[in-house]
């Protein structure tokens, strides 16, 4: 609980004017005398410390629910038959609603009741999370083998090679399709798109209003510490999302409506679909609980009067002589802040919405005329595009490239990648502070970070697993002849053209998409101590008539996923070194009165140019590497097999392209800053002929002071 404001906590101190105003505005109507100050106890919600705590929890939960879809993207694709391009578009729709409304946040500013707006936005985020789970409850149960009858275990005697005379005629892939079925599928996908849009809309007021509220009512010395705590806690949100995804995807998708005979799938089966919807329920409930306190915070609270005690003690030991002359003017006099700043930031609150919309394009073009600002934003667009694509499809890439489960991929990412990102951001900020880097130094640090990131990205092209040899689909050098899709050995079988129940021949490591395609006519279950093993025998298409194992072939290089992800994490940490120095380059690249607007334009451009299109671009690149598609109503649905070499080269190559673009932009920033510094020195030496020699003498001692950010 934060300190109470007023006589109860200040002893003999008299409440300031803001405290009296806050206490008096909520009393009985009319001109009744205010109660005795000793009888008035300020609410616990008048503490900025409590607001920082609540806002840290809320932003943590909000990022957890917005990042959870990325942890289960491959599961959602399998469950609803989506391509990677469509799932990437679904993930990017989170930014559509956010981008459409984020500009108006700068217009409303402090005119509205910010805590209540934050609470309403959080409630909308929670409702959007619940809406994401609706397709699970209104759709049919998941059928992982569409050739099996409904009242028996789903792959018992399913997909076997049965004589054509005794087997039912194979239904075409679109035999169960109708206009209503297609409409239902489109409706389910449409619900998820609407939910993602509402998720972005609800998140609009949370961060901007929360940061401005803390900055307005926290003590001037405490505000940076509060914001640092807020960002540190918030950064754990995506990591928790992947951890939650790792737990939920170990549960079967229809855990609330299991078939009577149970299921014979294991988590390693390629047909396994985890309980993706359960994570949305948990995250939505967390956001709803975190939203409750915001409806009790006041529109304005008394400004925090005391510096944090531990901070005061530390600063008293380190730089007490320097602070003696700085503590007295910390409290601004009435009207002082309005006299200091002029420009668009102060003009905007006086404009109507129509006037604000009209003047915004002019201000945008004026801001983009700054070469440093433009180049740094372009470099951040490249980095954000890399991060958006990696964050959305890295779990799926690890699943397909190294043949691991979705749960294990999420666990690795949550434990390795996100902590390295946090370390990179913290180390970048510490280097800027420790070395007292100016604009030129910041650009050098950014360029060095991206060069090292590119260097450690090169081995990723060569770390991966080869594609499995799939009978009738892949043709590798040295493969057995006659592995067409329908060879003569299975002419007597009536195989479903779109069935999927993969089996593996352990002797040749050839995989068949169903036991029927391997010509198998019987099924044997061997019970062991820990698990049962399923075999298919009497296989006419298998060399030596050997039995085949149920499931995909095991990979011999799955252990490479850990060194691969370690290199990815190291590259991410090096790229995140540029976070703080590039942000400072933006602040130093524009005029003082344009800083707030420049930051708003920066985030708007990052959303439009990076976070929205990048998942779609990465998804489209992944789709081009597919070698076998599942069909749904005659249309391509989810991809079942990829060419792993193409997948690795195109996915990592796209990441490498964005990293190279960012490095080039930072190199241009360094060239521009050096040219500007050279021109400034030349102009100064011409205006003061005798000053050039003095500059050469005093340069070593003055350089660090002039370049300090």
From TrEMBL:
Example of a GO cellular component annotation carried by this entry: apical plasma membrane
Organism (species): Callithrix jacchus (White-tufted-ear marmoset)
What name goes with this protein?
Answer: Solute carrier organic anion transporter family member
Q: Which InterPro entries match?
A: Kazal_dom, MFS_trans_sf, OATP
Q: Which domain of life is it from?
A: Eukaryota
Record localization? Cell membrane
Annotated segments matching region Disordered: 1-39, 320-344, 680-709
Record-linked SUPFAM superfamilies: MFS general substrate transporter (SSF103473)
Q: Which CDD domains match?
A: MFS_SLCO2B_OATP2B
The primary site where this protein sits is membrane
GO BP of this protein: monoatomic ion transport; sodium-independent organic anion transport
The entry's family comment says: Belongs to the organo anion transporter (TC 2.A.60) family.
Pfam families, sorted: OATP
Keyword Transmembrane in the entry? The reply is yes
- Annotated Kazal-like domain residues: 483-543
List, in alphabetical order, the Gene Ontology terms for molecular function in this entry: bile acid transmembrane transporter activity; sodium-independent organic anion transmembrane transporter activity
Tell me the gene name: SLCO2B1
TM segments? 89-110, 117-138, 183-204, 225-253, 273-297, 372-394, 406-432, 444-464, 560-584, 596-614, 656-673
UniProt membrane topology term: Multi-pass membrane protein
Bias type Basic and acidic residues, positions = 321-342, 700-709
Alphabetic keyword roster: Cell membrane, Disulfide bond, Ion transport, Membrane, Transmembrane, Transmembrane helix, Transport
């Amino acid at each position: 609980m934060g300190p109470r404001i007023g006589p109860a906590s200040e002893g003999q101190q008299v409440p300031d004017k803001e405290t009296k105003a806050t206490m008096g505005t909520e009393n009985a109507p009319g001109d009744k005398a205010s109660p005795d100050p000793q009888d008035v106890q300020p609410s616990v919600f008048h503490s900025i410390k409590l607001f920082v705590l609540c806002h840290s929890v809320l932003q943590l939960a909000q990022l957890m629910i917005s990042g959870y879809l990325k942890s289960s993207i491959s599961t959602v694709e399998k469950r609803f038959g989506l391509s990677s391009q469509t799932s990437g578009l679904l993930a990017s729709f989170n930014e559509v609603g956010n981008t459409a409304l984020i500009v108006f946040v700068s217009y409303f500013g402090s005119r509205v009741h910010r805590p209540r707006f934050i609470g309403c936005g959080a409630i909308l985020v929670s409702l959007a999370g619940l809406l994401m789970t609706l397709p699970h409850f209104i759709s049919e149960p998941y059928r992982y083998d569409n050739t099996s009858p409904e009242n028996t275990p789903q792959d018992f005697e399913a997909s076997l090679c049965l004589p054509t005379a005794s087997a039912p005629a194979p239904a075409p892939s679109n035999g169960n399709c109708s206009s209503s079925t297609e409409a239902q599928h489109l409706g389910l996908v449409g619900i998820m798109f609407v939910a993602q849009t509402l998720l972005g809309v609800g998140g609009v007021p949370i961060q901007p209003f929360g940061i401005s509220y803390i900055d307005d009512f926290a003590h001037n010395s405490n505000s940076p510490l509060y914001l640092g705590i807020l960002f540190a806690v918030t950064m754990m949100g995506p990591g928790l999302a992947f951890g939650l995804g790792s737990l939920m995807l170990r549960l079967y998708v229809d855990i609330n409506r299991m078939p009577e005979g149970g299921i014979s799938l294991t988590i390693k089966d390629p047909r396994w679909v985890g309980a993706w919807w359960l994570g949305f329920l948990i995250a939505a409930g967390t956001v709803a609980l975190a939203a409750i306190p915001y409806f009790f915070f006041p529109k304005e609270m008394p400004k925090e009067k005391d510096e944090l005690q531990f901070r005061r003690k530390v600063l008293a030991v380190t730089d007490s002589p320097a602070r003696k002359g700085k503590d007295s003017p910390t409290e601004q006099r009435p009207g002082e802040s309005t006299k200091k700043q002029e420009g668009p930031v102060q003009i905007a609150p006086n404009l109507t919405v129509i006037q604000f919309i009209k003047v915004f394009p002019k201000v945008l073009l004026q801001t983009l005329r700054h070469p440093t600002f433009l180049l740094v934003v372009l470099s951040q667009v490249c980095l954000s595009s890399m991060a958006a694509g990696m964050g959305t499809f890295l779990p799926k890439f690890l699943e397909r490239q190294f043949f691991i489960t979705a749960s294990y991929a999420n666990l690795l990412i949550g434990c390795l990648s996100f902590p390295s990102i946090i370390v990179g951001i913290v180390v970048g900020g510490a280097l800027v502070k420790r070395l007292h880097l100016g604009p030129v130094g910041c650009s050098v640090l950014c360029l060095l970070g991206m060069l090292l990131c590119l260097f450690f990205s090169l081995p990723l092209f060569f770390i991966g697993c080869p594609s499995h040899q799939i009978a009738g689909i892949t043709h590798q050098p040295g493969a057995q002849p006659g592995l067409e899709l329908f060879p003569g050995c299975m002419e007597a079988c009536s195989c479903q053209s779109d069935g999927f129940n993969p089996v593996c021949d352990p002797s040749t490591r050839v995989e068949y998409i169903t036991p029927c395609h391997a010509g198998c006519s019987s099924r044997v279950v061997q019970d062991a101590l820990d698990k049962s093993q399923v075999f298919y025998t009497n296989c006419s298409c298998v060399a030596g008539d050997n039995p085949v194992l149920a499931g995909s072939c095991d990979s011999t290089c799955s252990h490479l996923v850990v060194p691969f992800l370690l290199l990815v994490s190291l590259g991410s940490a090096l790229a995140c070194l540029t976070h703080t120095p590039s942000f400072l380059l933006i602040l130093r690249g524009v005029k003082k009165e344009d800083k707030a607007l420049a930051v708003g334009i920066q985030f708007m451009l990052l959303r439009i140019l990076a976070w929205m299109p990048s998942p779609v671009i990465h998804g489209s690149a992944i789709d081009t590497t597919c070698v076998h598609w599942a069909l749904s109503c005659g249309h391509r649905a989810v991809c079942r097999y990829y060419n792993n070499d193409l997948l690795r080269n195109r996915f990592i190559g796209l990441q490498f392209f964005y990293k190279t673009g960012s490095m080039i932009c930072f190199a241009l920033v360094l060239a521009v800053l050096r040219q500007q510094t050279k021109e400034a020195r030349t102009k100064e030496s011409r205006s003061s002929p005798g000053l050039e020699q003095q500059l050469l003498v005093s340069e070593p001692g003055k350089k660090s002071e002039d370049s300090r950010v």
